[in-house]
Amino acid sequence: MENDELFFLLIFNIVGVGIGVWFLYTRLRAKLVEVEERKARRWKHQISEESEE
Fold it and tell me: What is the pLDDT along the chain (53 residues), one digit of tens a residue?
């Protein structure tokens, strides 16, 4: 009986860690996309200001 509980807890923990890693990965990926878009807008804005001068 104790081995069954240990096996269940091991699987439960692996699934929990997997979900946590997936969640953090998706949040990090979304933040990186947001930062890249912000940088692209800033570069466009700087290029348009330089061309006006």
Answer: 688 999 999 999 999 999 999 999 999 999 999 999 998 888 877 777 666 65
Report the amino acid identity of residue 31: K
Residue 18, both tokens: 């997997």
Considering the entire predicted model, what is its pTM?
0.67
Token pair in block for residue 38 = 């912000």
Length in residues, the chain: 53
Q: 3-state SS string over the chain?
A: CHHHHHHHHHHHHHHHHHHHHHHHHHHHHHHHHHHHHHHHHHHHHHHHHHHHC
Composition of the chain by helix, strand, coil, percent to 5? 95, 0, 5
